[in-house]
Amino acid sequence: MVQRIYQHRENLVDGFTKRYGVHDLVWYEPHETMESAILKEKRLKTWERAAKIRLIESTNPTWQDLWPTLTDTSL
């Protein structure tokens, strides 16, 4: 998981984070398998923006970057 987040933070993979320069990690959910993570991501993409904001704010009301909590490196 840490490797994937690092790749997004450093623009090493194409996608939303690279396109829009979004690099703060404000929510994450660990999964046992890549398949379950992909399924969850696909489901989240169908949610309305307000629901996504509620999900983030339920665990991170200040939208703090969570990257430093996952690693000692606060890139």
Which secondary structure elements does this structure contain, and how are they paired or packed?
Layout: H1 2-9, H2 16-20, H3 34-46, H4 49-59, H5 67-70
Report on this model:
The structure is a single chain. By secondary structure, this protein is mainly alpha-helical. The chain has one domain (2-70). Helices cover 55% and strands 0% of the residues. The chain contains five helices and no strands. The two termini are 16 Å apart. The model has no long low-confidence stretch (mean pLDDT 90).
Rg result: 13 Å
The shape is: globular
Distance between the termini: 16 Å
Q: Helices and strands: which structural class?
A: mainly alpha
Uncertain runs are none
Strand content: under 5%
Count of domains: 1
Number of strands: 0
Query: What oligomeric state best describes the polypeptide chains here?
Result: single chain
> Helical stretch count?
5
Write a compact overview of the structure shown.
Helix content is 55%, strand content 0%.
Descriptive key words:
single chain; 75 residues; mainly alpha; globular
